[in-house]
Amino acid sequence: MDKAIDQNSGELPGGDEGPAPALRLKGLHKVFADNTAVDHVDLVVPRGSFFGLVGPNGAGKTTALSMAVGLLRPDEGRSEVFGVDVWSDPVQAKSLMGVLPDGLAMPERLTGRELLTFIGQLRGIADDVLARRTQDLLNVMELNDAERTLVVDYSTGMRKKIGLATALLHGPRLLVLDEPFEAVDPVSAAALKAILGRFVASGGSVILSSHVMPLVEQLCDTVAVMAKGRLVAAGPLDEVRGDGSLEETFVRLVGVEAGAWEELSWLAS
To answer: Which residues are listed as membrane-spanning (predicted)?
Structure first.
């Protein structure tokens, strides 16, 4: 595929500390009624990292990422992408990232090619560049055989792949993916893993949210563990998991309390 568009190239503000990280969250906070979904979260995602955000269902991962990318306004705090504030300069910030939300809604009465063309036109990508990138992405995602198939008729794996293609279309430097492998068949999952690996190897950064520990352990070099709206651990994968597996560390940090299973003693009777 061709290089990222000009507005995505070059160094961005980093201050005296050097180049800014791919993503920085400062005091991110969100309350829904009486529920604190995200509780003053601070997080730094290094450039060039494959970053895993893990946590049980309801931990606040989706809410945190939605605020991070500009889909949900925080009650407090900031989100910066390569030093660009997501809320004060949303156009520039969103040009630097591609987003694949969980349960992404998209125009379904279009083919994959038509969808990519439509998204590219909305982003103002030149026609010749758009045509080339669309073909490249359809090739890489192995969706050429579905040339005449409408998105509404896509399988779950195909929908994930075309969603990732829309996130990559404008040449972002950061991908933010919320449960990208959920309900995806092994063949499609392998293709997605290869694409994301190549993206990071070429200098991109990826944030992947998941509650599947072996997947995160396989793909990611840096992780953060979230529970009840707070970060309970963050850092390089090897440091966070210690001598055990990531799943063992995760269960120790956020798992069921000792003795909880005693309430189910009747199952053994």
So the answer is: none
pLDDT average, residue stretch 80-93: 96
What is the pLDDT confidence band of residue 15, given thresholds at 50, 70 and 90?
very low
Q: Does residue 21 surpass a pLDDT of 80?
A: yes
State the residue range of the domain holding 76. Answer: 9-103+174-268
Model pLDDT, residue 148: 87
Asked if the structure places residue 116 within a domain, the reply is no
Cβ within 8 Å of residue 72, ≥6 positions away: 30, 63, 66
**Tokens read off for 253:** 């940090």
pTM score of the predicted model: 0.86
Record the tokens describing residue 33, joined without a space.
Answer: 């009624």
Please say whether the beta carbons of 126 and 113 come within 8 A.
Answer: no
Split into its structural domains, the chain has a count of: 1
Residue entry with tokens 């850092």: 235
Give domain status of residue 150, yes or no.
no
Task: Say which CATH number the domain at 257 has.
Answer: 3.40.50.300
Kindly report, residue by residue over 152-178, the tens digit of the pLDDT.
999 988 999 999 999 999 999 999 999
